[in-house]
Each structure stands twice: as C-alpha cells, then as structure tokens.
C-alpha cells in the first residue's frame, strides 16, 4: 500500500531526511505550480521527489501554518477534484519573492558545498 | 471600501484561524487520504483506522496550529492561570490570608506614600507653587518665632521690581458681614492684589478670577467665592455668576467661584470671599494700603540668592517703619510648604517607615504561606514531574499562582488605599493643609503594582525553585511512609523570626506613640476645659444704625456687659466671662512691653490677653499672689494688669513682681476705642500673679502672659466663656435666646475662626494634640495589622506541618509518647523562631530607641517595649498551640489510617 507518510514498516526506498527549514521551501515550490490543498501539496512533493522524502505529518502542517502566518501562501476554501470542500493554498507576491530568494540561496550553497566535496586531492 | 470593512480585513489578516476552520481543513485531508487508501484496495474500516493512525486526531490539530503560529505560550499560561485560580479556590483560607497580607501591606504603603505626596510634596494647587515664598522676619533674639510683615502699596511696588521676583501677591484679611438677609452672617474676606488670577494660575470652577482691570476706578465691586462658602451659602448654585452679594451693606457682583482645592490662605485663615485689594482704600479710609506679601521667585533662582537680593530692600522698609520690626532681625524667604513640613514631616516619615515594615511583614507572610503550602503540595508536584512536566513548567506554574495572588493583593490593596489615605484626614483634619487633595496618583499606583509583582515573583520564585528541585522518585514513596520527621531545612523559620522581630518593632513604636499621647492628655493644662463653651460675637461695625449706637467705649462696654448678664441669667449657667483672643490652648497676641518705662535694651515680649475679671474663675485658673481686679476697675478700664507665673519667674529676678509697672505700646497705638484719659505710654500696675494656663499649645511650655481688662481697648469682637452645669452645648439654644433678647439681630459667629465650641474641642483641634492622636491611632492600627499578620503566619505554618505529619504524630502517640512531648514536637520550630524573633527585635529596639527618641521627641519607653514583647510572646504561643493541639487530638489508629 502506498502512503505519502513515513511507513512504520520497511521503507521501499532509502528515505532522504530534510535539513531544517527545507520543507517550507519545498511547500512554496509545490504551491508555485498552481493552487493545491494540503494533501495535494504532500502528494506533489512526494511525486516530484520520486517518493524518496520522509515528511512527518506533524512538521508538515506546522510548516503550512507558519507559511500562511507569514503571508507567503494564502489559503482559500474551494472544491476539490472529487467535489469535497478543501482549503487551497496559493503563492502570494511575498511568497514568490521568498521562493526566488531561497532557491538562489540554496543553489549557491549546494554548488559551493558540492564543489568542495567533489574536489580531489590533486586539484587543491 | 468602508472603514469597517478595512478593519475587518486587517483583523482577518492578523487573527488566528478559528478552531473549526483548522479542524475542517484537517478533516478534508484525512478524508482525501482515506479515499486514496480505499482506492488502493484497503477495506473501508481499515483505511479509516490507518488514516487516523498516520495523521492523528482532528481535535488535536488546533493545538498544532496554535503552536506553529506561536500562541502556545499564551495558551499554556492561560491554563496555568486557570489551574492556579482553581487551586486557590480549593484552598480559600490560604488564598484569603495570602491576599489579605499583601492587600494590607500594599494598601497601607500606597496610602501613606500618597499622603506624603499630597501633604509634603505637592499640597498646593497654585502654578509654580514651589517657587512661592513667604517672606518672614526672623527676630534674632527669638529665632524660632518668625513673623510676617505688612507692606505699603509703594513698598509692594518696590518688591515687584526686584531682580529675583517673578511676581508678588499682596493680601489682607478682614472680618465682614453678609447683610441684606434676615440675619447678618459673619464671613472672612481676603483682599488680593489684582494680579491674583495670574499669580495663582488656578482655573476658577465658574466665571473668572480677579484680574488687573478690577483695580480701575478705585476697584470694581466684584467678589470671587471660595468653594466651601459657595456650597454653604449658595448650596452650590451653578447660576451664581452675575448675581449680587451684599457685604457690609454694599453690593458686590459675583464674578467667579474657585475650585474645591483652592483654599487661600491656610496659615492666616481661609477666605470665604476674595475681593480686589484696591477697594480697601475707599472702605477703610486709611492713608496707605498695607499688604502681607507672598513672592513668586523667577525660575532657577536659589533661595540664598533671593534672600541676599531682597534683604536690602526690606532693610529700607524697616528704616521707614522701624516700629514694625524688631531690633535685630534678618529676612528669610520660606517656601510656603515649610510650616507643614515642620509640623507633619517627621510624623509622616515615621509612619512611612511603619508601613514599609508592614509591607515587609505582609510579603514575608505571603512567602511563608507559599512555602508551607508548597510543602503540602510536594506530592502533586512530584506526580506532575513524574508524568513528564519539565522543571520550568512546574516553576512557571508555581510562579503564576504567586503572581495571581500578588496581583489580586495589589488590586485590592489599591482599592483599600483609597480608603486608607482618607483615614488620617478624617482623624486629624487640622494637621494637613486644607488645600491638599489626597488622591492616589499614577506614579504611586505604578509603584504599588510594581511592588506587588516584585513580591509575587520574588516570594513565589524561592519556594518554586526549591520545590521543583526534588526528583520525583524520592518524593513519591516518601509521602507513603510519612513517619520521618520533616527535612531539617526550614526556610520559613527565618522568615517567622524576621516577621516577629519587625512586628515587635512596630508594636513597641505604637506603644511609645500611645504612651506619649496619654502623657500629653494627662499634662496639667493650668485651666479646666470641662463644661466651658466659647461664643464669639462680632459687633456690627458696618451697620450704620448699630454703629452709631456703639461709637463710644462706654457704650460698647455696656452692650457687652448687658449680653453677658443675660447669658449668666440662663438657668444652669454658672459663670460667664468676657475675653478677646483668649481661647486656650492658644491665647493672646504676642506684644512687646516695657518694665517700668525702661525701654532701652532689648524689648521683652509677652502674650497680651484682654479679659474681664471673671475669666479666671470661669476657666478655674488659680490666683498665686495678689488679687484680680474688681468690677469697678473692669468697667473703668483701669491701668492694671495680672501676669502669669511664667512671667513672674522670668522677670522677678531683680524685682518683686507685684511692685512692677509695665507699659504695652501695642495696646495703645492700635485702636482708638481705648481709655481716653490715658497717655500712650502710661504704665500699668501689676496687681496679681495667676497660675500658668497653656497658651502656646497643649505640649509647649507656657510663655509669659499679661492679662489686661478688656475694656482698656474695645475691639469690635469679643468672646464669651460660659461655664455650665453639664454639657455646655445643650444650653446653646437658651443662650441664643438670651442674646437675642438684648439685640435681636446680634449674630453668634459660626464656622471658621470664631466658631462656637467647647474648650475641650479647642484642645482637640490643637494641631499637636491632633497629630499625636493621629500618630497613636495609625501606629496602633499598623501594629495591630502587623501582629495579626505575624500570628496568621505562625498559625498557618504550624497548621500545615501538623496536617502533613499527622501519621508521624499518630505513630508517636501509639508508641507511648507523652502528649506534652508531641505538642512540643509539633510547635517546636515555630516557637523557637518566634522566640528568636523576639530576642532579635528587643536588641533592635534598644538600638533604635535613641533614633526614635529623637524623632518622636519622647523617650522610647522600656516599659512599652517589654509589654510589647510579652504580648507578642503570648500571642505567638497561642498561634503555635492552637493548631498544634490537632496533633494530639487525633486518635492514633485514625492517624495511622490517614493516608
């Protein structure tokens, strides 16, 4: 049975643990592709990551609530794909700016770290 | 967009989402997940279960939400407060005592500080009141008796131009009559220079103040009313402005009413009405107007600089009118607050020390209770800690409870202080400036609230830290066994000892205050005030008809004698005497005199009293030597005098008193209703010496006094001293009738200065008497409060520890311990701490004795100290034994089942 939530049994693939604060960035990215409800965001992140991310339910909603509080995303009630009431989140202008800044920062940092880690002894 | 909509939008953007909103969202996620699982082939029931397991309960989601947006702390604090309140409600006795301890301490402290602020720091409503000076002449031979001096208009203008002076105010007091009504009514009027409005800077309640243009054309006939007079005479009529008030048969237009806080001038007499000073010239037909000055200095001028700058100007005045100044003098500018500071300052400072002690005792009590209660709660706290409460959480819980107590105490204390601050004024209205309005002001309120919070945190933190330190494992079984004696550490025993020591200090001070008051009450007065009443009569100086009738000295004497006889004929009246300015304990006018015409050297001073020969009998003043003048001598106004013992002792050294002759220049130059045949310097023969009757206040030594027949100088007002059988006030109606039978429109003065009252009331109105009484009552109240608090502290500690150790005592009794021993074990620690407190307190008191003796001007009586210690020891013993009794009252079997 597939579940987006961490399995208590044997994991199918080796899960990647998220560094602090990364989940919020991922949520912003997921929402930037179009309005989604909470479960939808979770599924999309799992889907994009190739189901390799372990997202704890508690921290997931905590992150959503924080982002909403900071007005980086805003939630509105609407109809879901199977005609249920659901709360859809979309990116605000501030959220767009934040995502852009975070992405740039992350790319920079990843490049620097990767650059260092990949150096071979004779290249130094 | 309307404003309302804008506000709503703003609110939506900052307000947290509602509980149901969060829950609904979570439910929709739960449903979506569950459907996913069913789609993957799980049976519905299992899908439901798995969804719940993976995601959690919707009901708990709101907590996650509030935690995420940072509201968790508030939620928990709210919970702590609710829990704390519940805990207090479960234990109302503890809560009541703890809150009451703080209420008393904070209430009394706030009240006293407010009083000090109102009385010593800011008693006057005037603008720049701290720059207003009262210039006085200090006679270098009698430096402790400063005198005011009057200025002429020209001198007043000189003063105005002096460099350090911002503006001077001149005033002049006058007794007046309201005429035009059924009966004339005596009032007290004050003429003010026309700059009064700007000088005082007090906004009138109604209308306007006296302004410079009121001086035009010899002064406008306008009048400003004092608030109390307005209330008394006009019933507080708000439409009074523009109406006419007839004073001394002349119409005056009412232009303003001053606010309640304005009561110029408390030192020389509060005016009922205020009038433009320029009017005086037309009314009194005097060559020059005289004013008593008040001076407002420019900002930032020091007192010394102002004194130095003004002294030469006043020296110049002294050269113009040498008779108004003593031989050797210097000028001193006194801030107008000085008389009150001297009289009340020390008392209030000592009272503040007293209330601060009370506050400390209250806080200590609160802390003792928290500690004692904390011990009883160890079990509960151990359980909380065992099921995962962090130390911080437990400390916070205890702290919140302490703060709840202290805040409740602060709120009640502030409420109590409103009442407590009024108490001294009710008890002793004459020792405080009439203008000081005592109210709880904002800084003091803040001070008290800060104090309460500090107490809460400080006294809550200590037990909280102590109690949270224990690990749960050692605590939980400890309760079950409960036989072992309590841990040796008793922090509260130190607190009890401190509390008892401070209480002893307060009780001993109260004892001393009460003793010195009793001493004051028992001091020989030299006269007998019981059953003597004073009635003031003002002659109708401004009624043209009456005026004509009493133009001569003889006619006045006859008129007064006629009234006196009528009063004397009232059944029950035993003696009626006449006097002017002769109401003890403050009598006479300070005047200079010469012995045997030798007027070179220094000029001696004495109190001169105008009385008739019956005065001594009416007041029961004893005759020591010689005789009193007789009726004929009195009627003629002979040149004779009687002196008091203090006079005789001071001036007898080289002469036989009865051989002395003296002259009193002041008596002859002031007034033209004097004995016509006498020359101004004529000598008076001393014919008798009488005993000393208090004439400078109840507690001050009697000063030399000269009694002169009142007929020598017929002033326009006299007082009758009526000795009756029983309470004199019951005769008032009959006496009014007797006076009316002589002259139907003769008013007996009431209110203000010449009120009708008994001589006993006159003593009670004496500032020193009233202050001493206030002092003993307040200290008595404070020490009673402190005693009650200390006893409650001891009581609750013993009660708590007995309740906790019931099992232990049961075992002891079952094993055959004597009851007395168990009682001793139960009460031991509290008793020992109380005893230590008493010993420390005694040591402290002997050390402070010297300081207190200086402040209270009375010895710190060893007797009252030991009485206080004995009282404290006895009540501490009771407070220990009453709860300890329960330790032996429980049957051992029941005690063992107690758990």
Blueprint of the fold:
The complex is a heterodimer of chains A (124) and B (899).
Chain A: H1 22-32, E1 36-37, H2 38-48, H3 57-69, E2 73-79, E3 85-91, H4 93-118
Antiparallel strand pairs in A: 1-3, 2-3
Chain B: H1 3-14, H2 19-39, H3 44-55, H4 61-68, H5 72-90, H6 92-121, E1 132-139, E2 151-152, H7 153-161, E3 165-178, E4 185-192, H8 196-200, E5 206-207, E6 222-225, H9 227-234, E7 244-247, E8 250-257, E9 273-276, H10 279-284, E10 290-297, H11 303-320, E11 329-335, H12 338-376, H13 378-386, H14 391-427, H15 442-469, H16 472-481, H17 491-522, E12 532-538, H18 544-549, H19 553-568, E13 573-580, E14 589-592, E15 594-595, E16 605-611, H20 615-618, E17 623-626, H21 631-636, E18 640-644, H22 645-651, E19 661-663, H23 665-669, E20 684-690, E21 705-709, E22 717-724, H24 732-742, E23 757-758, H25 759-765, H26 767-804, H27 806-814, H28 819-856, H29 862-889, H30 892-897
Parallel strand pairs in B: 4-9, 6-8, 16-21, 18-20
Antiparallel strand pairs in B: 1-10, 1-11, 2-10, 3-4, 3-10, 5-8, 6-9, 7-8, 12-22, 12-23, 13-16, 13-22, 14-16, 15-19, 17-20, 18-21, 19-20
Helix pairs in contact in B: 2-3, 5-14, 6-12, 6-14, 6-15, 6-26, 12-15, 12-17, 12-26, 13-16, 14-15, 17-26, 17-28, 17-29, 19-24, 26-28, 26-29, 28-29
Structure explained in plain terms:
The complex is a heterodimer of chains A (124) and B (899). Chain A is an alpha+beta fold. Chain A has helices spanning 22-32, 38-48, 57-69, 93-118; strands at residues 36-37, 73-79, 85-91. Chain A has a 3-stranded antiparallel β-sheet. The termini of chain A are far apart. Chain B is built from 30 helices and 23 strands. Chain B is α+β, with helices and mostly antiparallel strands and 899 residues long. In chain B, strands 12, 13, 14, 15, 16, 17, 18, 19, 20, 21, 22 and 23 form a 12-stranded mixed β-sheet that branches. Classes of the chains: A alpha+beta (124), B alpha+beta (899). At the A-B interface, helix 2, helix 3 and strand 3 of A face helix 2, helix 3 and helix 4 of B.
């Amino acid at each position: 049975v597939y579940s987006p939530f961490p399995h208590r049994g044997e994991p199918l693939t080796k899960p990647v643990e998220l560094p602090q604060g990364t989940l919020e960035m991922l949520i912003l990215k997921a929402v930037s592709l179009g309005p989604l409800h909470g479960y939808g965001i979770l599924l999309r992140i799992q889907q994009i990551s190739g189901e390799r991310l372990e997202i704890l339910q508690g921290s997931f909603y905590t992150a959503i609530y924080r982002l909403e509080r900071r007005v980086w995303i805003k939630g509105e009630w609407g109809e879901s794909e199977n005609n249920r009431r659901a709360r859809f989140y979309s990116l605000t202008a501030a959220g767009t700016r934040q995502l852009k800044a975070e992405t740039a920062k992350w790319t920079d940092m990843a490049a620097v770290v990767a650059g260092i880690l990949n150096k071979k002894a004779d290249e130094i | 967009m309307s404003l309302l909509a804008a506000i709503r939008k703003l609110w939506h953007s900052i307000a947290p989402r509602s509980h149901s909103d969060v829950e609904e969202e979570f439910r929709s996620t739960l449903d979506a997940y569950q459907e996913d699982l069913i789609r993957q082939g799980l049976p519905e029931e299992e899908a439901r279960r798995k969804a719940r397991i993976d995601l959690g309960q919707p009901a708990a989601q709101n907590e996650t939400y509030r935690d995420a947006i940072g509201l968790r702390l508030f939620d928990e604090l709210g919970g702590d407060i609710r829990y704390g309140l519940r805990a207090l409600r479960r234990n109302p006795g503890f809560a009541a005592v703890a809150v009451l301890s703080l209420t008393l301490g904070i209430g009394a402290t706030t009240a006293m500080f407010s009083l000090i602020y109102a009385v010593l720091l800011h008693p006057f409503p005037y603008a720049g009141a701290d720059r207003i000076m009262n210039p006085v002449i200090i006679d270098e031979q009698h430096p402790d008796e400063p005198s005011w001096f009057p200025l002429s208009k020209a001198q007043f203008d000189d003063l105005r131009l002096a460099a350090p002076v911002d503006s001077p105010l001149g005033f002049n007091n006058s007794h007046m009559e309201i005429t035009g009504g059924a009966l004339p009514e005596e009032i007290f009027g004050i003429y003010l220079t026309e700059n009064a409005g700007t000088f005082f800077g007090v906004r009138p309640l109604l209308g306007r103040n006296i302004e410079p243009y009121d001086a035009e054309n010899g002064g406008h006939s306008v009048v400003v009313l004092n608030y109390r007079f307005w209330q008394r005479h006009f019933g507080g009529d708000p439409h009074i402005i523009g109406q006419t008030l007839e004073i001394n048969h002349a119409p005056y237009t009412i232009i303003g009413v001053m606010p309640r806080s304005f009561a110029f001038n408390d030192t020389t007499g509060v005016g009922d009405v205020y009038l433009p000073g320029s009017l005086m010239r037309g009314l009194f037909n005097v060559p020059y107007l005289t004013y008593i000055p008040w001076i407002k200095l420019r900002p930032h001028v020091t007192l010394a600089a102002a004194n130095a700058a003004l002294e030469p100007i006043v020296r110049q005045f002294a050269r113009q009118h040498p008779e108004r100044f003593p031989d050797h003098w210097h000028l001193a500018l006194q801030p107008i607050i000085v008389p009150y500071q001297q009289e009340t300052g020390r008392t209030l400072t000592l009272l503040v020390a007293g209330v601060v002690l009370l506050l400390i005792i209250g806080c200590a009590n609160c802390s003792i209770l928290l500690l004692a209660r904390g011990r009883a709660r160890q079990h509960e706290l151990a359980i909380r800690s065992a099921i995962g409460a962090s130390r911080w959480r437990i400390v916070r819980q205890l702290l919140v409870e302490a703060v709840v107590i202290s805040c409740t105490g602060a709120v009640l204390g502030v409420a109590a202080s409103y009442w407590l601050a009024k108490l001294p004024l009710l008890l002793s209205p004459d020792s405080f400036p009439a203008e000081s309005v005592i109210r709880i002001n904002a800084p003091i309120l803040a001070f008290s609230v800060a104090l309460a919070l500090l107490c809460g945190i400080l006294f809550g933190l200590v037990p909280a830290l102590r109690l949270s330190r224990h690990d749960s494992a050692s605590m939980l079984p400890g309760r079950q066994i409960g036989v072992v004696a309590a841990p040796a550490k008793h922090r509260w025993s130190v607190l009890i000892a401190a509390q008892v020591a401070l209480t002893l200090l307060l009780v001993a001070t109260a004892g001393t205050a009460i003793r010195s008051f009793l001493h004051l009450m028992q001091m020989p007065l030299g006269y007998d005030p019981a059953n003597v009443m004073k009635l003031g009569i003002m002659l109708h100086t401004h009624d043209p008809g009456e005026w004509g009738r009493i133009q001569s000295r003889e006619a006045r004497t006859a008129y007064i004698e006629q009234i006196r006889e009528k009063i004397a004929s009232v059944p029950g009246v035993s003696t009626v005497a006449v006097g002017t300015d002769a109401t003890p304990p403050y009598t006479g006018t300070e005047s200079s005199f010469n012995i045997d015409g030798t007027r070179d050297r220094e000029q001696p001073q004495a109190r001169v009293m105008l009385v008739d020969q019956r005065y001594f009998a009416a007041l029961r003043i004893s005759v020591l030597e010689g005789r009193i003048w007789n009726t004929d001598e009195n009627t003629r106004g002979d040149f004779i005098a009687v002196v008091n013992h203090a006079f005789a002792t001071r001036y007898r050294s080289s002469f036989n008193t009865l051989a002395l002759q003296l002259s009193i220049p002041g008596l002859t130059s002031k007034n033209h209703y004097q004995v016509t045949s006498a020359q101004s310097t004529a000598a008076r023969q001393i014919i008798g010496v009488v005993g000393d009757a208090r004439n400078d206040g109840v507690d001050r030594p009697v000063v030399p006094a000269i009694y002169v027949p009142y007929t020598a100088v017929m002033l326009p007002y006299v007082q009758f001293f009526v000795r009756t059988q029983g309470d004199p006030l019951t005769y008032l109606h009959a006496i009014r009738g007797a006076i009316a039978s002589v002259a139907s429109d003769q008013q007996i003065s009431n209110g203000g200065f010449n009120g009708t009252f008994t001589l006993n009331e006159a003593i009670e109105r004496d500032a020193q008497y009233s202050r001493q009484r206030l002092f003993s009552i307040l200290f008595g109240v404070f020490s009673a409060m402190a005693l009650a608090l200390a006893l409650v502290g001891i009581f609750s500690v013993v009660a708590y520890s007995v309740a906790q150790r019931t099992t232990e005592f049961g075992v002891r009794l079952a094993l055959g311990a004597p009851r007395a021993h168990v009682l001793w074990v139960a009460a031991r620690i509290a008793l020992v701490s109380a005893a230590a407190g008493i010993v420390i307190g005694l040591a402290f008191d002997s050390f402070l004795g010297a300081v207190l003796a200086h402040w209270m001007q009375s010895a710190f009586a060893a007797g009252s100290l030991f009485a206080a210690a004995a009282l404290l020891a006895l009540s501490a013993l009771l407070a220990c034994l009453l709860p300890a009794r329960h330790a032996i009252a429980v049957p051992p079997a029941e005690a063992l089942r107690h758990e």
